[in-house]
Amino acid sequence: MLKFKFISIIIAFSFFTKIYSQSVINVESKADTTSIKVGEKIKYEFSFSIDSLSNLSFEIRNFNPPFEIIEDFQMDTLYSNNQVSIIKKYHLTSFESGSYSITPPLIIRDNIIKLNDSIVIDISTVDVDTVSKKFFDIKNIIPFSKNNDGWWKKYFLIISFISIMFLLWILYKNSNFFGSNEIKLTPPIEKAIQALQHLDFEKLSNQSDYKLYYSKLTEIVKNYLEEDVKMDAIESTSDELIEKLKLLKGAGKLDIDNETLKNFHSVLSNADLVKFAKSNPGPEVAIRDKKILETVLVDTKEAIPAPTEEELLKSEKYLIQIRKEKNKKLIINFLKFTLIGVFVLISSSIAFFGWEEVKDNVFGNKTKTLLESKDWVTSTYGAYPITISSPDVLIRVDSEVGQSFEFQSLENSFYVSLITKPANNDEDLQNILLNHLKEKGALNILSQQDEFVLENGITTVRYFGSFDYINKEGNVVKKEYSNLIFFEKGGSQTVTCIIDRNNKYASQIITRLKNSINFKSN
Length: 522
Known about the structure:
Strand content: 25-35%
Shape: flat
Number of strands: 20
Distance between the termini: 128 Å
Structural class: alpha+beta
Helix content: 40-55%
Number of helices: 12
């Protein structure tokens, strides 16, 4: 029994020790207003101070309904006088009317929270006028596919630009377009010496390497003799080659000494032994033979007599021919790259501006020309005068009612008709218009009516719509019309404008024409 009481005392002591060890944290809150309308914003914040953050553990939860968070700001921490202040700010709202209290959504573990009074917010409804305003039924959702038009244009522009720059670089590199037009021919002796110097003898390890090495040695020398000495050397054997050189010496066409011929014959003999007898002379002999051939080439070049005047003339003609061929190739390359550049430029323009825009600007468009013409005519028509500006003067035509004037016909992209006559309030204006369109060949006529105000403030009645028209080629053309009726100067003036559907230039002409309508004072 004594043991049980002792244990109970220890447990109770531990419990009260824990309770009194917890600190009390005062949490304060405030709002910028206590009264809002549904959906309006509330600026709300709460704050508390503690001695240290080391043992602080807390959790922020959601606000109680009906409050909703519009914006949640980062928590601020301030240090002052050995105290740490925590400040948390929100922008809140509510869409339910009534009076509701806001309390900080804060839980601090192992501490006691002391809250000030909660803030009561009055939320009022918004007055809605359901009497004087006209309401319409909610429209159905119209499905549409994602618009992917034009996604490729920027990539096409990049590729086009890179292509043009690449073509220009090729033209610059291959044709020497911006460089000198001077033709530089490398002398045969220089080409032969350079070829010998580039011949590698360090990789001579077996008989096949020596065979390839000596084959290149003799080939270099024979090519030089073919080009500079003008003798048949490539298809000649070693002995035949020496004999041909001796014949040239005897004929006085090659002033070469016997020592040079002897050295040359020695190298050719070594080459024959390597190529046909599978001899392996060793690197020292290979290097020596290469140096001997360099000396033979130099001696042979010095042994060639100076060219005659006839030979120099032939050489000059050859250079002129080479220059002409090079210029011809340059012109062909320039034209080729120009055509490619023009093609890329036109393709890029079509991609960005559209085929119609490019076609109208490059090949021309009659309607566009009329629109942009500076020779528009402003004239007054009829006994009941009306002033109109148009691309050209309206032509008077015979009419059974009033005075009639026209510009172009329905075969064109736009057509203008003007009729002036005495005013008659008993006429069925819409029916007269429809009959007039039918006489012109209109089919499947659709018509609407509204009030129309010109830029100068004149108000009139407008009949507008669309119809089909079969042109002289038998094709059906979609047309749009607009009919303006005025009652000015004691009479009536009817202006009818008809254009091809989707013709933006014709539409702009008609708009400009309508806005020019005016009536002169008496």
